Predict the structure of Polyketide cyclase.
Amino acid sequence: MSDTNELVQRYLAAWNETDAAARQAVLAEVFAEDAVYTDPLVSVKGRDGLDATIAAVQGQFGGLVFSLGGAVDAHHDIARFTWHLGPEGAEPIVIGFDVAVIGDDGRISQVLGFLDKVPAGI
Amino acid sequence: MSDTNELVQRYLAAWNETDAAARQAVLAEVFAEDAVYTDPLVSVKGRDGLDATIAAVQGQFGGLVFSLGGAVDAHHDIARFTWHLGPEGAEPIVIGFDVAVIGDDGRISQVLGFLDKVPAGI
């Protein structure tokens, strides 16, 4: 379970990493190469697709920080968790919820994402 | 979206169907043959595995009814929803949460399930 917590934290670290090379390194560590990522706004396959998605989100929400919104609930090879996006230490502007599937190699193979709070006009 | 609601309702109907042949018919309608179902207590592949799981749960919670606990939130090929298990019209004894992935043929190919409320001693 602590491994899964760490994996989720590293996954959120990828969303916060604005240096392209560093972000790709974190994604390679936590995300299977052919992993599938789907949220309400995008559905992509592979690390490159997720990397481009993260870069676009960072462009839209510059300066805001992703953080874990509560405990990670994990069993078998799956985990669910809520995440926040907002100014550091302040009320989140976006609240999302992901279910991650973890492959045999310990990396995330699939993310199924939903949104619980979005700013008006997004 | 209404199709997804209907699919989820039919999926819950399978959990409520105590006649084995009728349940298998509903499962064939809503669940891909090689679908994967994982919740905190079991991880099975294929309709037969899910059918056996449902039969076991019905044996444990005889007379209780599965119902949708709120709106189905769906996008792309995925949906999340909360379900209740309890006496008809009364406070649920078990509350669960599923994310379902829907295949190209419109049937559920994957269920990732979690529990939000469980009775003591289960």
Observations:
- The longest strand of chain B covers residues 108-117.
- The two ends of chain B are 34 Å apart (CA to CA).
